[in-house]
């Protein structure tokens, strides 16, 4: 049996255990990262405010028992759709991991994006990495103290805005803001906001790469995802070694001039020249840094580049391989199933219960009645009126509210009575039909005319 090939990744961390300051670098991959992360940040902060017909476009309210996904109210029967969405997301992640390593982590993971935002604030308030490192050796006072205080204030402000926005996906954001401004927010909500703000501040400001190194499970199982043809950020040791501090044309030194720029820009503090490591999030910062060095030395770019293990060993690279194709197929099926599921969501839930008191009641010698309670629950039908009738059965008469307005309450329990004259069958089928302008549901129950 063919074994799944795995790529050995250093489990031993080569990341710095001391405090380090990340140098900000410019280049193709940093531009690409901005191109991906800025729209994601904008979506995160804006989507929470979007409303359609006075309803949030996205809401996961457990308190109000309401889930609204892309303007679509989901009933509790549609919850598997959320599971499907997670499976589809996971298959996308696996596909990306097999093809391009941890690019999700480097380019789109919220932890990385927020870490970069916090680093930008640090750079703006306390100066560049080299200035910050120098300042660390001096006493904290005067202007430095003010700059440090400003940094932490801005970090806390960003953490608070992030928390409010995140919470707005679970409790309508306008309600939160209104409650906070009118001092009506519950202790639970205030406590949650304080804790989440603290966690965001600590995650992106203080702990940063430690989350990627020690808390993220993804880095631990990536070795079973990668194969020899996975493209990851790699150092071309054949070209770079032996390193030389100054490149001298008459020596046999490699192209790496040991300038350490690739280490200084690394957000996880590792040296990619030590090989593929679990801590590398494939952000490409070291590629951009090394390319600037290569440009200055008039050497070809790409000493550090996205390359596969096969490519680095000058072996043929396979793009289409069974594992990649399997994940692609799984991803297409999962997203297809979720899309189909969206077209089949439940808008009107109807539950019929027989009255427990008696199987039937006899109104007069010829007329028998059965009593029911109908639970009618609407999802995204706030402005609709629902007509309740019996379907195509002239023998039966329906008594009860003929029209239900779900604008006040989206779930109601109502009593109904169905009567029939001269019924000869002991049991018959009754079909309740509930119709709104955009929804129709037929529900079956039994009519009992005599005890058996
Ligand atoms: S940036 Fe390039 S040249 Fe400088 S140490 Fe890293 S690999 Fe070597
Ligand atoms: S080694 Fe390079 S790609 Fe990996 S995390 Fe560090 S800077 Fe990013």
Report on this structure:
It is a single chain. It is elongated, with a radius of gyration of 32 Å. By secondary structure, the protein is an alpha+beta fold. Strands 8, 9, 10, 12 and 14 form a 5-stranded antiparallel β-sheet that branches. It has helices at residues 28-47, 80-100, 103-108, 110-126, 129-136, 142-167, 173-181, 187-207, 209-215, 218-221, 237-240, 261-264, 285-296, 309-312, 322-343; strands at residues 51-52, 55-56, 59-61, 66-69, 72-74, 232-235, 304-307, 348-354, 361-362, 367-378, 385-390, 396-399, 403-405, 411-421, 427-435, 440-448. Helix 4 (110-126) runs antiparallel to helix 6 (142-167) and helix 6 packs across helix 8. The longest helix has 26 residues, at 142-167. Among the domains are: 28-77 and 102-218, no CATH class; 348-448, Immunoglobulin-like (Sandwich), CATH 2.60.40. Bound molecules: iron/sulfur cluster (2 copies).
């Amino acid at each position: 049996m063919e074994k799944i090939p795995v790529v050995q990744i250093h489990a031993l961390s080569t990341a710095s255990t001391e405090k380090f300051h990340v140098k900000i670098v410019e280049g193709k991959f940093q531009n690409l990262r901005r191109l991906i992360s800025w729209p994601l940040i904008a979506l995160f902060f804006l989507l929470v405010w979007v409303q359609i017909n006075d309803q949030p476009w996205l809401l996961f309210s457990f308190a109000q028992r309401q889930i609204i996904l892309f303007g679509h109210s989901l009933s509790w029967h549609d919850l598997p759709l959320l599971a499907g969405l997670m499976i589809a997301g996971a298959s996308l992640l696996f596909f990306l991991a097999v093809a391009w390593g941890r690019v999700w982590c480097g380019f789109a993971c919220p932890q990385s994006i927020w870490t970069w935002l916090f680093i930008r604030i640090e750079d703006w308030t306390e100066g560049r990495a080299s200035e910050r490192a120098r300042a660390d050796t001096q006493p904290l006072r005067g202007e430095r103290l003010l700059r440090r205080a400003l940094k932490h204030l801005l970090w806390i402000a960003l953490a608070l805005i992030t928390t409010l926005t995140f919470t707005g996906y679970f409790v309508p954001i306008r309600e939160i803001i209104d409650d906070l401004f009118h001092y009506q927010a519950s202790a639970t909500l205030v406590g949650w906001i304080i804790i989440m703000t603290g966690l965001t501040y600590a995650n992106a400001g203080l702990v940063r790469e430690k989350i990627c190194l020690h808390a993220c499970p993804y880095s631990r199982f990536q070795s079973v995802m990668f194969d020899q043809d996975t493209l990851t950020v790699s150092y071309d040791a054949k070209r770079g070694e032996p390193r030389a501090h100054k490149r001298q044309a008459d020596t046999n030194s490699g192209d790496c001039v040991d300038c350490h720029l690739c280490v200084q820009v690394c957000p996880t503090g590792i040296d990619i020249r030590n090989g593929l490591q679990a801590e590398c999030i494939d952000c490409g910062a070291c590629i951009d840094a090394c390319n600037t060095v290569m440009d200055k030395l008039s050497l070809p770019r790409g000493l550090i580049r996205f390359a596969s293990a096969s490519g680095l060993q000058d072996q043929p690279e396979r793009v289409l391989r069974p594992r990649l194709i399997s994940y692609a197929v799984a991803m297409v099926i999962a997203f297809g199933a979720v899309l189909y599921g969206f077209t089949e969501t439940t808008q009107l839930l109807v539950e019929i219960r027989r009255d427990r008191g008696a199987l039937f009641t006899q109104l007069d010698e010829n007329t028998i009645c059965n009593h029911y309670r109908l639970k009618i629950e609407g999802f995204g039908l706030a402005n609709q009126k629902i007509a309740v009738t019996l379907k195509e059965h002239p023998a039966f008469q329906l008594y009860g509210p003929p029209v239900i307005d779900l604008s006040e309450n989206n779930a109601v329990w109502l009593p109904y009575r169905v009567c029939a004259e001269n019924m000869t069958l002991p049991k018959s089928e009754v079909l309740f039909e509930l119709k709104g302008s955009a929804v129709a549901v037929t529900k079956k129950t039994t009519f009992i005319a005599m005890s058996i």
